[in-house]
Specification:
Number of strands: 0
Helix content: over 70%
Strand content: under 5%
């Protein structure tokens, strides 16, 4: 597992080191690095939004079939496959972007938690200890401010996700999402108080970018949904 993460973390470390060579400020480098990573992942995230818009139009037909064939699972499966073929809809497509993103997220986590393990640069050995804004050392945890900012941004992001999937999930899944909406931000605050400040900077900036991306993509999703319904 560590070798697999290293395959992803090392190229990302090369990018981080390359950017620092031009910027010469580790805090600003982390912000630029985060923007680049989010820009590269944006097409995958946009595809998820597009899929959820398509799902919104197919969902009522799926629910009608589920009610009609509630006592005949075999026929229900056949009718579902026919519906997917007719609508040219692949329910697994929504999972693909996340599956692609997860190894990248693990690689980023490993890199920013222990940058010097994956970066073969003497310059970066000192860079990770630089001060930034109120932070005296980006390799050390920030006890409150950054973790709280990261927790707030995570809460807003989860709220947006919950609004996206409203009415599309079963009640049990909806209840779980509501619980995670509060639990996960608290967990981020707790973990942020023990992780290097550089990693928490990445999480906060990345989540803040995603919030603005989601706002724009939600408008696009609404237009796609209206178009699909016509």
């Amino acid at each position: 597992m560590n070798e697999f993460i290293g395959v992803i973390a090392r190229p990302l470390g090369m990018l981080l080191s390359f950017l620092y060579g031009y910027i010469d400020n580790y805090g600003i480098t982390l912000i630029i690095f985060t923007i680049i990573v989010k820009a590269c992942l944006f097409p995958l995230y946009a595809d998820q939004i597009k899929h959820s818009a398509r799902m919104a139009t197919v969902q009522p037909k799926m629910q009608a079939l589920q009610r009609k064939y509630a006592n005949d699972k075999e026929t229900l499966n056949i009718k579902m496959m026919e519906l997917y073929k007719e609508e040219k809809f692949n329910p697994m497509r929504g999972c693909l972007p996340m599956l692609i993103q997860m190894p990248i997220i693990f690689g980023l986590f490993a890199l920013l938690r222990n940058p010097t393990v994956f970066i073969e640069s003497d310059t970066m050995l000192m860079a990770v200890h630089e001060a930034f804004l109120w932070l005296p050392d980006l390799s050390q945890p920030d006890p409150w401010i950054l973790p709280i900012l990261a927790g707030i941004s995570t809460f807003v992001s989860f709220t947006q996700t919950q609004q996206q999937t409203a009415g599309m999930a079963e009640n049990s899944m909806s209840s779980m999402m509501k619980m995670m909406r509060y639990f996960f931000p608290i967990m981020i605050v707790w973990m942020g108080r023990s992780f290097p400040a550089g990693l928490t900077v990445y999480w906060f900036i990345g989540t803040a970018i995603q919030i603005f991306q989601t706002r724009g993509l939600n408008r696009w999703k609404n237009k796609l949904t209206e178009k699909e319904k016509k």
